[in-house]
Design goal:
- By secondary structure, the protein is an alpha+beta fold.
- The protein folds into three domains: about 60 residues, no CATH class; about 140 residues, CBS-domain; about 120 residues, 2-Layer Sandwich (Uridine Diphospho-n-acetylenolpyruvylglucosamine Reductase, domain 3).
- The chain contains 15 helices and twelve strands.
- The longest helix is centred in the middle third of the chain and has 21 residues.
Length: about 375
């Protein structure tokens, strides 16, 4: 009779099941890449070696669109896709100052006027201030509500022995004084921090089917707003519909060699138009627009008529501004700037601030001379 020999190993060791040795990292990576049919296809077509598909694709794009077999548009879109994961919500959002929003108690008639004048399909809805956003309203919901009530009113009028309406709609029955909150048209809106990756917000929008997100800071204040269209434009470029108007260039060269600029024009666009000598240096890492550069340069918001030293030999004159923002600027090289009248009794080189303000006022009175603020 066979005798069983007891297990002499410690109980803790005996209880552990036998484990297979883990695959080396190189074998695991090769297995994952090998299972990727797209990776195999790209390597077959372009003769790439096994490795990072992202790196291989980026290398192919750097060699030129023709060499990689892509058209220029395809190449540009692929570059945008590769760089999308590096972008944050703060990079693509519409800033707070440009948000079109309505108060929750706005009358439906006034809401119609806002939709008509702003050409947006979605509007942010807030309670007391923009920092108390409660959702959004979609123009389709508003039209659906008005149509449903007009249809019901027309049917009731025809059923009471009256003459039926040919259109089947009794628009007079719509109460345009009804408030937005009472009509219950406010939809949910997403909230996102400025540091959130754009690609994560896009995935969240797809999952929730909510295409508008409010960007909030660490204190709950509103920084901006992002729509799905804003994110898609990061890949395919600007999308203009039937209601979008052609925007005037942000920076326009004048006959005298100076430049009239919308203060919200980007530093990148300004450098592209003025030239590489208009290099703001490391400030470009902190601000994006000419207005931001001017405010950073002097440490405060400038006033109208003020002249701010620019990069190199450039000077920037504030043509239009209010206590909240800078609107229009004039950029010129210091040698091209006309001499300012001196104040009586003032030392040589001192300019007349009243004269500067008069000049800026006369310059800003002609809107055809400057780019329109978007």
């Amino acid at each position: 009779m066979a005798m069983s020999i007891p297990d002499q190993r410690p109980a803790s060791e005996a209880a552990e099941p036998a484990q297979e040795p883990p695959n080396p990292p190189s074998m695991k990576a090769a297995h994952e890449v090998g299972d990727n049919w797209l990776g195999r296809a790209l390597r077959t077509v372009f003769g790439w070696k096994a490795g990072s598909i992202r790196a291989d694709l980026r290398t192919a794009l750097e060699e030129g669109a023709g060499a990689a077999g892509f058209s220029p548009k395809e190449s540009a879109m692929l570059r945008n896709i590769l760089s999308l994961r590096e972008r944050r919500v703060a990079d693509v959002m519409v800033p707070r100052a440009d948000i079109i929003a309505v108060q929750k108690n706005i009358a439906l008639g006034d809401l119609l006027k806002v939709f008509a004048s702003q050409a947006h399909s979605r509007l942010v809805v807030y309670d007391d201030t923009l920092d108390d956003a409660i959702g959004m309203v979609h123009i389709r919901d508003l039209i659906a509500l008005m149509t449903a009530r007009a249809v019901v009113a027309a049917a009731e009028a025809g059923g009471e022995g009256g003459e039926p309406l040919s259109t089947g709609l009794d628009l007079k029955a719509i109460d345009l004084a009804l408030s937005l909150s009472a009509a219950k048209l406010v939809r949910e809106i997403l909230f996102a921090p400025p540091s959130m990756p754009v690609i994560d917000l896009l995935a969240k929008m797809q999952a929730t089917r909510i295409h508008l997100a409010l960007v909030v800071d660490e204190y709950g204040g509103t920084d901006g707003v992002v729509s799905m269209e804003d994110i898609v434009e990061q890949i395919v470029g600007d999308i203009a519909d039937e209601h979008d108007e052609d925007m005037a260039p942000g920076v326009v060269r004048q006959a005298d060699g100076s430049y009239l600029a919308n203060a919200r024009a980007s530093l990148e666009d300004a450098t592209a138009i003025i030239g590489p000598e208009f290099d703001v240096g490391e400030v470009a890492q902190e601000v994006d627009t000419l207005a931001g550069y001017v405010a950073t340069r002097i440490g405060r918001l400038p006033v109208r008529g003020e002249i701010v030293p620019g990069p190199g030999k450039f000077e920037i004159e504030v043509l239009d501004a209010d206590p909240r923002r800078v609107k229009r600027l004039k950029i010129y090289r210091s040698l091209d700037r006309p001499a300012r009248p001196r104040v009586a009794g003032a030392p040589s080189g001192a300019s007349d601030p009243t004269g500067s303000r008069d000049q800026s006022a006369s310059s800003s009175s002609d809107p055809s001379q400057a780019p329109t603020e978007s």
